[in-house]
């Protein structure tokens, strides 16, 4: 409604009277100017009429057009010798609002900050306004409220649209006498409530966009200081507007109790009347209550805000209040659809407020969908789409919300295909407009610029780079999904550097793990959201935290069909486990095929439901990979176990080493040199090309040992031989190109300073993709009675007779092993749930596939549900052990074609995510009898030793033997080669054992495993140490005797550096990775 009155310009002239007669020169000057200015006062106000005309496009949802109009309005703003005046607060704020609704957060923040800087420049402007002493009650209320009834009884006040404000100086005589710019006094008609509204909106939006950075921002502190002086007429009803601004400034400073107190006072003018900004105070109180989880209070405040806003035609407040009210209705678990939304839509349509109508219809669709009225929800979405046709709003936040809700409804209707396009559009917008991502980027810039202390910087990173929690998914699932699915590694790296600056090495290792988690999740659908839900629903309970267990229960209560499907899947898997993995019995084959088909159908049904749930306001803990602290891992490590953790960032390669009671940190000085040495080592070992034969003469060469020794020195800070003697197991967490480094073949210098020995001789070696996976996952070790063996040509020229001989040798060595029939009876993603151990002795030749898009089974390559990403889907329960000696990495080209290591990391994480615990993969293919012998001995040892000790023993036995060149397809044919030593690392150094410390029943001690006699069929005297390793036996250790503990020196690496990004000084040469004892 329009409640305007106008003060006659001549009244301004009377107010100036006596002061204008002080000096003749001033009088003459003033009399010549004032009539003109008074005349201008009749047609010009602050802000001017053109500004208000711009609201038409804004309320219509045409935000780009509105932005242009507000920008043009600013050109006609009030200007003086002192710069722009308070009307520019409005132009900046509404230009910011236009950007805000289009998702341009950076531009919006700039405009809001500009508005507030203008406010500070004119902070006392309300002291110059001619306010009436009292406000009367409004007698002409004609607003028709159709969506509910207010519970508040405060009367509506009658407030003029404009009040007169005196600008200029009354003492210009002093200026004339002393010099300066004469500023004639003038009374300006000002839309006071609009200026205050825009100041309040700028305060609120700036807090929203800055997130936790806001309370540490200097401008925020200046605003609190200025407003806490209450720069308005004292003991006057207009103080309600100061209280509104002050309350929002307190909120921006993180002082929520003070903010609530001021905003509550701001609801009424003079403690009596609702005023034009009552709705804004109610809306902001609702937001604060919503943030604190006080949903009943929030819902009341939002509802009341809609009523008050309607009386004063504040449609943008109504739109936001209805949106928040609907979210609160759903989040608080209210029954049924939200009452009044349909009526509010009709009201908005009648008023032709398109922005508000589209928002209300979208909110109505969500509440109807939540209440189970799918048809009504779909109809609301259809209406909203018709309203939004050709509106610029379709490309903004409103369009993203509508698309997201449409995708949810399609998924609930069982139509995932139709859901793809709107979901993709919603995420594409949100990844650009995400508040969470904007907070991260802003905090990162602020910290890097030194805008906060190191302590505050650490707090900000901790707040913003955390895992999504239940509140995040509940309050804003779309923004949470956008954050999860958008890679943002640099802030994580800067956090790591900051923590190292603070000399918190343990936390640095934990942050390195979070960097890897983020890398993995951002490569998955919806940032790993569906992956997390799969684990909650189907992972073994011992692998879940108590929180995840409770989330599973809540999930099954909210979606009873999921609980029933879970039971049916369990029954079907039990029935399949009762059948042989492969059988010639036709009846059993039919039964198995039927059960696998049923399992596939049940799992597909679960997947469709989880896709739907993934968009809902439902929490999901990310159970895998787990988060563990260094203390947790150290506490579970055995004596003699060394963990080496590497992390490659955009600027450095960090190395962390720890045992059960000590740790050290250093920076790899020249990562580029490590890569060059790695490429040289791989080339000298024999990796020129993936299929190029190796000349037997190269097998006799030891040139590869030179770069192998250099690499180990660089990666371990030049550790000495006596350092390595303390460790019986080394766990490597590689990163980047270090995935291609065969640590087993790296060379340790011996005491004589001339000879070296391989690291594999001194200790068992295993790899994990994350520090948290160094430890077992809590599952018990089950008998691996169902081993699937798939044998094919590893090398194109490999003789078929050798292939069949290798197959027979592996099958004969493993009880319960069998080959799978072809064609397979079910897709690999389903069949994998019935396999305990998979041995794929064949070539994985899918170079064009992504790290999650190759087929681990190969028999079903190219068919639906055959890729590794399909294996990560339900049913959960991939093979416990996976052995793939035909896996490819860039190591087979000696890195000539590049390689980041990410493809290995993601493949390994994908296999472990499917339920596997132990992986044996190759960096380069060898094939032939050597591969068969290594694999056969390894799987024979597994029932008696840990995986790392079983592999170590297999390699030791192999290296002590001889090669048959005719049985090795990678060896170049030559008459000179008839019998070769097997000690060359080309044949044994290319394998990497990725293992999560899964243990056999007995023995549990790695030393016992090494000392255990060879299997019965191979009982013989222990082989002599390889020629290059004269002290290998001594390095392994005395059976049953733990290595003697030696005191570890203090780290020599010194302080890490003066600022983020600086490289810590290199540790003293030869300091190794021995660290200081952990502070207890």
Automatic annotation (TrEMBL):
Pfam families in alphabetical order: CHAT
Bias-annotated ranges (Basic and acidic residues): 1015-1032
Span list, region Disordered: 999-1080
Domain of life: Bacteria
UniProt-listed SMART domains: TPR
Domain CHAT, residue spans: 902-994
Biased composition (Low complexity): 1002-1014
Protein's UniProt name: Tetratricopeptide domain protein
